Amino acid sequence: MPTPAMEDILKRLSAEFVVAGTESVQDAEKVVEAASTGKRPAQDAIREIARIAHSLKGQGGAFGFMNLTLVAHRLEDFLLNVDSTRSDFWADVLRYLDRVSRILDGEIPGERDAEKALADLPVAALFDGVLDRQDIEVVLASEGATQNRVIRSELEACGFRVTVIPSTPEALAYVSRVRPRLLIASAVMPVITGADLVRAIRAMVATKDVMCILATSGSEAIADSLPKGVPVVRKGRNFSADIAGALQQVGLV
Amino acid sequence: MSQVAQPGKGGVVLAVDDDKLIRQLISAILETAGYTVFTAGSREQAFKTLGVMKPTLLLLDVELGQDNGYDICRDIRQTFPNLDPVIVFVTSRRTKDDVKAALDAGGHYFIVKPFSPEGLLDAISKAVIARHRQTRQSP
Fold it and tell me: Which of the residues A50, A189, B50, B77 has an alpha carbon 20 to 30 A from that of A175?
Protein backbone atom coordinates (compact mmCIF):
# COMPACT_ATOMS: atom_id res chain seq x y z
CA MET A 1 0.00 0.00 0.00
CA PRO A 2 1.29 3.52 -0.75
CA THR A 3 2.48 5.40 2.34
CA PRO A 4 0.83 8.78 3.19
CA ALA A 5 3.93 10.51 1.79
CA MET A 6 3.67 8.58 -1.45
CA GLU A 7 -0.06 9.24 -1.62
CA ASP A 8 0.65 12.96 -1.44
CA ILE A 9 3.18 12.68 -4.23
CA LEU A 10 0.82 10.59 -6.35
CA LYS A 11 -1.92 13.15 -5.78
CA ARG A 12 0.38 15.96 -6.91
CA LEU A 13 1.55 14.01 -9.95
CA SER A 14 -2.05 13.15 -10.79
CA ALA A 15 -2.92 16.88 -10.79
CA GLU A 16 0.10 17.54 -13.02
CA PHE A 17 -1.06 14.76 -15.32
CA VAL A 18 -4.46 16.44 -15.72
CA VAL A 19 -2.75 19.67 -16.82
CA ALA A 20 -0.26 17.90 -19.12
CA GLY A 21 -2.96 15.59 -20.51
CA THR A 22 -5.24 18.54 -21.29
CA GLU A 23 -2.39 20.24 -23.14
CA SER A 24 -1.72 17.03 -25.08
CA VAL A 25 -5.37 16.83 -26.12
CA GLN A 26 -5.26 20.48 -27.24
CA ASP A 27 -2.13 19.70 -29.28
CA ALA A 28 -3.88 16.71 -30.85
CA GLU A 29 -6.92 18.84 -31.70
CA LYS A 30 -4.66 21.31 -33.50
CA VAL A 31 -3.15 18.43 -35.47
CA VAL A 32 -6.66 17.26 -36.44
CA GLU A 33 -7.55 20.80 -37.52
CA ALA A 34 -4.42 20.99 -39.71
CA ALA A 35 -4.96 17.54 -41.23
CA SER A 36 -8.66 17.96 -41.88
CA THR A 37 -8.04 21.21 -43.75
CA GLY A 38 -5.21 19.74 -45.82
CA LYS A 39 -2.47 21.76 -44.10
CA ARG A 40 -0.74 18.64 -42.79
CA PRO A 41 -0.35 15.19 -44.44
CA ALA A 42 -2.85 12.71 -43.00
CA GLN A 43 -0.33 9.95 -42.22
CA ASP A 44 1.97 12.40 -40.47
CA ALA A 45 -0.98 13.67 -38.40
CA ILE A 46 -2.10 10.13 -37.56
CA ARG A 47 1.40 9.26 -36.35
CA GLU A 48 1.47 12.33 -34.11
CA ILE A 49 -1.97 11.68 -32.63
CA ALA A 50 -1.13 7.99 -32.14
CA ARG A 51 2.01 9.06 -30.26
CA ILE A 52 -0.07 11.30 -27.99
CA ALA A 53 -2.66 8.54 -27.47
CA HIS A 54 0.10 6.05 -26.68
CA SER A 55 1.57 8.39 -24.08
CA LEU A 56 -1.83 9.05 -22.48
CA LYS A 57 -2.50 5.31 -22.41
CA GLY A 58 0.65 4.70 -20.40
CA GLN A 59 0.16 7.61 -18.04
CA GLY A 60 -3.60 7.35 -17.43
CA GLY A 61 -3.75 4.19 -15.35
CA ALA A 62 -0.64 5.14 -13.41
CA PHE A 63 -2.24 8.40 -12.27
CA GLY A 64 -5.69 7.09 -11.42
CA PHE A 65 -7.38 7.44 -14.81
CA MET A 66 -7.75 3.86 -16.02
CA ASN A 67 -10.77 4.83 -18.13
CA LEU A 68 -8.57 7.30 -19.98
CA THR A 69 -6.15 4.45 -20.67
CA LEU A 70 -9.02 2.41 -22.13
CA VAL A 71 -10.19 5.28 -24.37
CA ALA A 72 -6.62 6.00 -25.50
CA HIS A 73 -6.13 2.30 -26.30
CA ARG A 74 -9.30 2.40 -28.44
CA LEU A 75 -8.13 5.58 -30.16
CA GLU A 76 -4.82 3.93 -31.09
CA ASP A 77 -6.73 0.94 -32.46
CA PHE A 78 -9.00 3.28 -34.43
CA LEU A 79 -6.09 5.23 -35.90
CA LEU A 80 -4.35 2.04 -37.00
CA ASN A 81 -7.36 0.38 -38.58
CA VAL A 82 -9.64 2.98 -40.12
CA ASP A 83 -9.13 4.51 -43.54
CA SER A 84 -8.27 8.17 -42.99
CA THR A 85 -9.84 9.18 -46.32
CA ARG A 86 -13.31 8.49 -44.92
CA SER A 87 -15.30 11.67 -44.74
CA ASP A 88 -15.96 11.49 -41.00
CA PHE A 89 -12.53 10.15 -39.97
CA TRP A 90 -11.28 13.38 -38.37
CA ALA A 91 -14.64 14.09 -36.75
CA ASP A 92 -14.45 10.65 -35.17
CA VAL A 93 -10.91 11.30 -33.92
CA LEU A 94 -12.24 14.51 -32.33
CA ARG A 95 -14.94 12.48 -30.59
CA TYR A 96 -12.21 10.39 -28.98
CA LEU A 97 -10.27 13.47 -27.94
CA ASP A 98 -13.43 15.02 -26.52
CA ARG A 99 -13.97 11.87 -24.46
CA VAL A 100 -10.42 12.10 -23.10
CA SER A 101 -11.04 15.76 -22.19
CA ARG A 102 -14.25 14.89 -20.38
CA ILE A 103 -12.42 12.26 -18.32
CA LEU A 104 -9.64 14.73 -17.48
CA ASP A 105 -12.25 17.36 -16.55
CA GLY A 106 -13.91 14.90 -14.18
CA GLU A 107 -17.15 14.90 -16.13
CA ILE A 108 -16.69 11.16 -16.69
CA PRO A 109 -15.18 9.12 -13.84
CA GLY A 110 -11.51 8.23 -14.28
CA GLU A 111 -11.72 4.86 -12.58
CA ARG A 112 -15.34 3.62 -12.41
CA ASP A 113 -18.01 3.00 -15.06
CA ALA A 114 -15.70 1.92 -17.88
CA GLU A 115 -18.75 1.20 -20.04
CA LYS A 116 -19.80 4.86 -19.75
CA ALA A 117 -16.31 6.04 -20.66
CA LEU A 118 -16.30 3.91 -23.81
CA ALA A 119 -19.97 4.21 -24.79
CA ASP A 120 -20.75 5.21 -28.37
CA LEU A 121 -17.17 5.80 -29.40
CA PRO A 122 -16.54 5.20 -33.10
CA VAL A 123 -14.84 1.91 -33.85
CA ALA A 124 -12.62 0.38 -36.48
CA ALA A 125 -15.33 -1.66 -38.19
CA LEU A 126 -15.43 -0.65 -41.80
CA PHE A 127 -17.62 -2.34 -44.39
CA ASP A 128 -18.35 -1.01 -47.84
CA GLY A 129 -17.46 2.46 -46.71
CA VAL A 130 -19.93 2.45 -43.84
CA LEU A 131 -18.69 2.63 -40.28
CA ASP A 132 -20.68 0.24 -38.17
CA ARG A 133 -21.56 1.49 -34.70
CA GLN A 134 -23.17 -1.65 -33.40
CA ASP A 135 -22.57 -1.62 -29.66
CA ILE A 136 -21.39 -5.19 -29.16
CA GLU A 137 -17.76 -5.33 -28.18
CA VAL A 138 -15.58 -8.32 -28.85
CA VAL A 139 -12.09 -8.63 -27.38
CA LEU A 140 -9.61 -10.70 -29.32
CA ALA A 141 -6.71 -11.89 -27.17
CA SER A 142 -4.29 -13.23 -29.73
CA GLU A 143 -0.74 -12.60 -30.90
CA GLY A 144 -0.49 -13.47 -34.57
CA ALA A 145 -0.91 -10.39 -36.73
CA THR A 146 -2.10 -12.34 -39.76
CA GLN A 147 -4.47 -14.46 -37.74
CA ASN A 148 -5.81 -11.37 -36.00
CA ARG A 149 -6.57 -9.74 -39.32
CA VAL A 150 -8.53 -12.82 -40.41
CA ILE A 151 -10.53 -13.10 -37.19
CA ARG A 152 -11.08 -9.36 -37.05
CA SER A 153 -12.47 -9.24 -40.57
CA GLU A 154 -14.79 -12.18 -39.83
CA LEU A 155 -16.12 -10.48 -36.73
CA GLU A 156 -16.42 -7.07 -38.32
CA ALA A 157 -18.34 -8.72 -41.15
CA CYS A 158 -20.88 -9.60 -38.45
CA GLY A 159 -20.94 -5.97 -37.32
CA PHE A 160 -19.08 -6.30 -34.03
CA ARG A 161 -16.69 -3.79 -32.53
CA VAL A 162 -13.35 -5.54 -32.19
CA THR A 163 -10.52 -4.70 -29.82
CA VAL A 164 -7.32 -6.66 -30.33
CA ILE A 165 -5.08 -7.18 -27.30
CA PRO A 166 -1.99 -9.27 -28.04
CA SER A 167 -1.27 -10.10 -24.39
CA THR A 168 -3.41 -12.22 -22.04
CA PRO A 169 -2.53 -10.34 -18.79
CA GLU A 170 -3.58 -7.10 -20.45
CA ALA A 171 -6.68 -8.79 -21.89
CA LEU A 172 -7.60 -10.01 -18.40
CA ALA A 173 -7.33 -6.47 -17.01
CA TYR A 174 -9.24 -4.99 -19.96
CA VAL A 175 -12.07 -7.56 -19.87
CA SER A 176 -12.41 -7.11 -16.10
CA ARG A 177 -12.95 -3.39 -16.55
CA VAL A 178 -14.89 -3.17 -19.80
CA ARG A 179 -16.84 -6.44 -19.64
CA PRO A 180 -17.24 -6.94 -23.38
CA ARG A 181 -19.95 -9.24 -24.69
CA LEU A 182 -17.45 -11.73 -26.10
CA LEU A 183 -13.82 -12.76 -25.58
CA ILE A 184 -12.01 -14.82 -28.19
CA ALA A 185 -8.71 -16.10 -26.84
CA SER A 186 -5.96 -17.85 -28.72
CA ALA A 187 -5.00 -21.04 -26.85
CA VAL A 188 -1.23 -20.68 -27.14
CA MET A 189 -0.22 -17.45 -25.45
CA PRO A 190 2.76 -16.58 -23.22
CA VAL A 191 2.38 -15.77 -19.50
CA ILE A 192 -1.29 -16.85 -19.27
CA THR A 193 -2.62 -19.41 -21.75
CA GLY A 194 -5.87 -18.73 -23.58
CA ALA A 195 -7.58 -21.56 -21.69
CA ASP A 196 -6.47 -20.14 -18.33
CA LEU A 197 -7.65 -16.68 -19.39
CA VAL A 198 -11.09 -18.08 -20.27
CA ARG A 199 -11.27 -19.96 -16.97
CA ALA A 200 -10.28 -16.82 -15.04
CA ILE A 201 -12.86 -14.67 -16.83
CA ARG A 202 -15.64 -17.17 -16.23
CA ALA A 203 -14.62 -17.65 -12.59
CA MET A 204 -14.86 -13.98 -11.62
CA VAL A 205 -18.25 -12.70 -10.54
CA ALA A 206 -17.88 -9.45 -12.47
CA THR A 207 -17.06 -11.19 -15.77
CA LYS A 208 -18.82 -14.54 -15.49
CA ASP A 209 -21.36 -13.49 -18.13
CA VAL A 210 -18.72 -12.58 -20.74
CA MET A 211 -19.10 -15.13 -23.51
CA CYS A 212 -15.87 -16.86 -24.43
CA ILE A 213 -14.50 -18.74 -27.42
CA LEU A 214 -11.12 -20.48 -27.49
CA ALA A 215 -9.25 -20.56 -30.81
CA THR A 216 -6.77 -23.39 -31.07
CA SER A 217 -4.81 -25.52 -33.47
CA GLY A 218 -4.16 -28.11 -30.76
CA SER A 219 -5.91 -31.27 -29.62
CA GLU A 220 -9.62 -31.79 -28.93
CA ALA A 221 -8.88 -32.62 -25.31
CA ILE A 222 -8.65 -28.96 -24.34
CA ALA A 223 -12.44 -28.58 -24.63
CA ASP A 224 -12.92 -30.84 -21.59
CA SER A 225 -10.92 -28.51 -19.37
CA LEU A 226 -12.93 -25.40 -20.24
CA PRO A 227 -15.99 -24.03 -18.43
CA LYS A 228 -19.34 -25.25 -19.73
CA GLY A 229 -20.56 -23.52 -22.89
CA VAL A 230 -17.17 -22.32 -24.14
CA PRO A 231 -16.81 -23.36 -27.80
CA VAL A 232 -13.42 -24.33 -29.20
CA VAL A 233 -12.70 -23.09 -32.71
CA ARG A 234 -10.10 -24.82 -34.84
CA LYS A 235 -7.65 -22.67 -36.74
CA GLY A 236 -7.35 -23.85 -40.30
CA ARG A 237 -9.24 -24.05 -43.56
CA ASN A 238 -12.71 -24.10 -41.97
CA PHE A 239 -11.94 -21.36 -39.49
CA SER A 240 -14.53 -18.90 -40.84
CA ALA A 241 -17.29 -21.47 -40.71
CA ASP A 242 -16.21 -22.55 -37.24
CA ILE A 243 -16.24 -18.96 -35.95
CA ALA A 244 -19.73 -18.50 -37.37
CA GLY A 245 -20.83 -21.72 -35.65
CA ALA A 246 -19.30 -20.64 -32.35
CA LEU A 247 -20.98 -17.23 -32.54
CA GLN A 248 -24.28 -19.04 -33.03
CA GLN A 249 -23.50 -21.33 -30.13
CA VAL A 250 -22.96 -18.40 -27.76
CA GLY A 251 -26.03 -16.66 -29.17
CA LEU A 252 -24.41 -13.64 -30.78
CA VAL A 253 -25.66 -14.28 -34.33
CA MET B 1 25.54 -11.59 -6.19
CA SER B 2 26.43 -7.92 -6.37
CA GLN B 3 24.83 -5.24 -4.21
CA VAL B 4 21.46 -5.39 -5.97
CA ALA B 5 18.81 -2.88 -5.04
CA GLN B 6 16.05 -4.23 -2.83
CA PRO B 7 13.04 -2.26 -1.53
CA GLY B 8 13.94 -0.62 1.77
CA LYS B 9 17.61 -1.56 1.50
CA GLY B 10 18.85 1.24 -0.66
CA GLY B 11 20.54 0.72 -3.96
CA VAL B 12 21.06 3.10 -6.85
CA VAL B 13 18.48 3.13 -9.62
CA LEU B 14 18.53 4.78 -13.01
CA ALA B 15 15.09 5.23 -14.59
CA VAL B 16 15.21 6.02 -18.31
CA ASP B 17 11.95 7.24 -19.82
CA ASP B 18 11.15 10.06 -22.24
CA ASP B 19 7.97 10.86 -20.33
CA LYS B 20 8.69 13.36 -17.54
CA LEU B 21 5.61 12.43 -15.51
CA ILE B 22 6.46 8.74 -15.63
CA ARG B 23 10.02 9.56 -14.51
CA GLN B 24 8.63 11.56 -11.59
CA LEU B 25 6.24 8.74 -10.72
CA ILE B 26 9.00 6.12 -10.73
CA SER B 27 11.22 8.38 -8.60
CA ALA B 28 8.44 8.95 -6.07
CA ILE B 29 7.67 5.26 -5.74
CA LEU B 30 11.26 4.08 -5.51
CA GLU B 31 12.55 6.84 -3.23
CA THR B 32 9.71 6.08 -0.83
CA ALA B 33 10.80 2.44 -0.98
CA GLY B 34 14.35 3.37 0.03
CA TYR B 35 16.17 3.62 -3.27
CA THR B 36 18.40 6.40 -4.50
CA VAL B 37 16.95 7.32 -7.88
CA PHE B 38 18.44 9.08 -10.87
CA THR B 39 16.47 9.69 -14.04
CA ALA B 40 17.28 10.24 -17.69
CA GLY B 41 14.99 11.34 -20.51
CA SER B 42 17.16 10.21 -23.38
CA ARG B 43 19.78 7.69 -24.41
CA GLU B 44 22.53 10.32 -24.14
CA GLN B 45 21.54 11.34 -20.62
CA ALA B 46 21.33 7.68 -19.64
CA PHE B 47 24.86 6.94 -20.81
CA LYS B 48 26.27 9.99 -19.00
CA THR B 49 24.55 9.00 -15.74
CA LEU B 50 25.51 5.33 -16.06
CA GLY B 51 29.21 6.15 -16.26
CA VAL B 52 29.11 8.34 -13.15
CA MET B 53 26.51 6.85 -10.83
CA LYS B 54 26.99 3.15 -11.62
CA PRO B 55 23.41 2.06 -10.80
CA THR B 56 22.66 -1.48 -9.68
CA LEU B 57 19.16 -1.34 -11.15
CA LEU B 58 18.11 0.06 -14.50
CA LEU B 59 14.50 0.76 -15.49
CA LEU B 60 14.49 1.19 -19.25
CA ASP B 61 11.58 2.41 -21.36
CA VAL B 62 11.23 0.25 -24.47
CA GLU B 63 9.86 3.06 -26.64
CA LEU B 64 12.28 5.87 -25.84
CA GLY B 65 11.40 8.50 -28.42
CA GLN B 66 13.20 7.55 -31.62
CA ASP B 67 15.33 4.99 -29.78
CA ASN B 68 14.59 1.38 -28.99
CA GLY B 69 15.12 0.29 -25.38
CA TYR B 70 16.34 -3.15 -26.41
CA ASP B 71 19.09 -1.68 -28.58
CA ILE B 72 20.07 0.72 -25.80
CA CYS B 73 20.25 -2.22 -23.39
CA ARG B 74 22.63 -4.08 -25.72
CA ASP B 75 24.77 -0.94 -26.10
CA ILE B 76 24.93 -0.51 -22.32
CA ARG B 77 26.07 -4.10 -21.91
CA GLN B 78 28.85 -3.48 -24.46
CA THR B 79 29.89 -0.03 -23.24
CA PHE B 80 29.79 -0.83 -19.51
CA PRO B 81 30.74 -4.54 -19.32
CA ASN B 82 31.61 -4.30 -15.61
CA LEU B 83 28.40 -2.60 -14.56
CA ASP B 84 25.95 -5.51 -15.01
CA PRO B 85 22.84 -3.93 -13.43
CA VAL B 86 19.49 -5.67 -12.95
CA ILE B 87 17.45 -4.47 -15.92
CA VAL B 88 13.67 -4.03 -15.96
CA PHE B 89 12.03 -2.98 -19.21
CA VAL B 90 9.08 -0.61 -18.98
CA THR B 91 6.73 -1.08 -21.91
CA SER B 92 3.16 -0.60 -23.00
CA ARG B 93 2.87 -4.09 -24.47
CA ARG B 94 4.04 -7.56 -23.55
CA THR B 95 3.78 -9.91 -26.49
CA LYS B 96 5.84 -13.03 -27.14
CA ASP B 97 8.11 -11.02 -29.44
CA ASP B 98 8.63 -8.39 -26.73
CA VAL B 99 9.55 -11.00 -24.13
CA LYS B 100 12.06 -12.61 -26.51
CA ALA B 101 13.54 -9.25 -27.53
CA ALA B 102 13.93 -8.26 -23.87
CA LEU B 103 15.70 -11.47 -22.89
CA ASP B 104 17.88 -11.39 -26.01
CA ALA B 105 18.89 -7.84 -25.15
CA GLY B 106 19.92 -8.83 -21.62
CA GLY B 107 16.86 -7.71 -19.64
CA HIS B 108 15.63 -9.52 -16.53
CA TYR B 109 11.95 -8.57 -16.28
CA PHE B 110 9.13 -6.47 -17.69
CA ILE B 111 6.62 -4.05 -16.32
CA VAL B 112 3.70 -2.97 -18.44
CA LYS B 113 2.36 0.59 -18.36
CA PRO B 114 0.17 1.63 -16.69
CA PHE B 115 1.58 0.28 -13.45
CA SER B 116 0.77 0.72 -9.77
CA PRO B 117 3.39 1.40 -7.08
CA GLU B 118 2.98 -2.20 -5.89
CA GLY B 119 3.29 -3.47 -9.45
CA LEU B 120 6.56 -1.60 -9.97
CA LEU B 121 8.11 -2.89 -6.74
CA ASP B 122 6.89 -6.41 -7.53
CA ALA B 123 8.49 -6.26 -10.99
CA ILE B 124 11.79 -5.16 -9.44
CA SER B 125 11.67 -8.04 -6.95
CA LYS B 126 11.03 -10.51 -9.77
CA ALA B 127 13.86 -9.02 -11.82
CA VAL B 128 16.21 -9.39 -8.85
CA ILE B 129 15.17 -13.05 -8.47
CA ALA B 130 15.64 -13.65 -12.21
CA ARG B 131 19.08 -12.10 -12.09
CA HIS B 132 20.00 -14.14 -9.00
CA ARG B 133 18.99 -17.39 -10.77
CA GLN B 134 20.94 -16.32 -13.83
CA THR B 135 24.04 -15.66 -11.74
CA ARG B 136 23.80 -19.06 -10.02
CA GLN B 137 23.45 -20.85 -13.34
CA SER B 138 26.44 -19.12 -14.87
CA PRO B 139 29.58 -21.28 -15.02
Answer: A50
